[in-house]
């Protein structure tokens, strides 16, 4: 009976050691808090974000980089949010972008309505 208990404890310890650590939670208002990654995204990194208003419409400019030595296809869309944090426009369609090996590229978005005061960038790779 003692052997079974030791085996169960050993398996539990091994299983807990294999768990992958959770990434840190981004600070509210930071660029990382505005990005929602859907699925694994090993080599594509959001470098910088710039936000401005022009004629009452929110403009977003995002710098992405591909650290891989292969071309990567990325799908993205912006979700435009109001002051309460809820969407203020229809869901955008997914747009595709090819990031060549070791390339930096900018993607841009413009809110479809002046009611947008915040945004979320959704990213996914095939």
From TrEMBL:
Entries under InterPro entries matching the protein: DUF1425, YcfL-like_sf
Record-linked Pfam families: DUF1425
Alphabetically ordered keywords of this record: Signal
Superkingdom of origin organism: Bacteria
Signal peptide (residue range): 1-21
Protein name, as recorded: YcfL family protein
Annotated organism of origin: Pseudomonas retamae
């Amino acid at each position: 009976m003692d052997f079974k208990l030791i085996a169960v404890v050993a398996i539990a310890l091994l299983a807990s050691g294999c768990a992958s650590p959770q990434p840190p939670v981004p600070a509210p208002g930071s660029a990382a808090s505005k990005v929602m990654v859907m699925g694994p995204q090993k080599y594509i990194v959001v470098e910088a974000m710039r936000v401005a208003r022009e004629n009452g419409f929110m403009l977003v400019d995002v710098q992405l980089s591909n650290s891989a030595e292969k071309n990567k296809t990325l799908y993205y869309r912006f979700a435009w949010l109001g002051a309460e944090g809820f969407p203020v426009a229809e869901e955008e369609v997914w747009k595709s972008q090819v990031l060549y090996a070791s390339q930096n590229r900018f993607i841009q978005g413009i809110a479809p309505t002046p009611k947008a005061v915040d945004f979320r960038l959704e990213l996914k790779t095939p």
